[in-house]
Specification:
Layout lengths: L4 E3 L14 E5 L8 E6 L3 E3 L3 E8 L9 E8 L18 E5 L19 E7 L4 E13 L7 H6 L2 E13 L3
Parallel strand pairs: 1-7, 4-10
Antiparallel strand pairs: 2-3, 3-5, 5-8, 6-7, 6-9, 9-10
Length: 171
């Protein structure tokens, strides 16, 4: 099966690292004990501007191994990602690498585990409340598993998330 996922090279996100709007999630598709956070620099963004989001795995599933993460985010609000991830291969998804691999965004953060932190973003064309859906994938190995062959050969764990963002008209 060929993945219909588009790898989006990390966006150059100019962010003042103001970690606000912390939304801490306990749970995942399979394991309610894993803890991760999905944090936006703001709950509100203007139409056409990027919202910057930090994903951090706080308590790895693979506790005794050197795991890393990457983020998969839905690209189309009209085809939302389901919380059980049953449609992940049927929708358009953007992929964001962790900060160990995304050297462009390393300069915006300090004192974070680069292997377990990802910066990603999205912009919206309509005002109102929007939900950003995706999942954090924890994996073992030094190379990000971005195709079916790689996914079949290494252990992975997926953690679904949703983040609410309000989009306002430009001022």
């Amino acid at each position: 099966m060929i993945l219909r996922k588009k790898l989006i090279y990390p966006l150059v996100l100019v962010a003042f690292v103001h970690i606000g709007c912390l939304e801490e999630k306990k749970g995942s598709v399979d394991d309610p004990q894993v803890v991760f956070s999905v944090t936006a620099t703001s709950d509100t963004v203007q139409v056409g501007k990027f919202v910057k989001i930090f994903a951090k795995l706080k308590q790895p599933y693979f506790a005794n191994a050197e795991s890393e993460i990457m983020v998969f985010m839905e690209n189309n609000d009209s085809l939302p990602l389901k919380s059980d991830l049953s449609n992940e291969y049927d929708i358009d998804i953007a992929i964001f690498l962790n900060l160990k691999n995304d050297t462009t965004n390393q300069k915006w953060v300090r004192n974070m585990d680069y292997k377990k932190t990802t910066i990603f973003g999205r912009k919206f064309s309509r005002t109102g409340m929007h939900t950003i859906r995706g999942y954090i994938m924890e994996y073992l190995g030094k190379v990000p598993p971005i195709d079916d062959k790689a996914l079949d050969s290494i252990p992975v764990k997926k953690y679904y998330f949703e983040k609410e963002i309000y989009v306002e008209d430009t001022k």
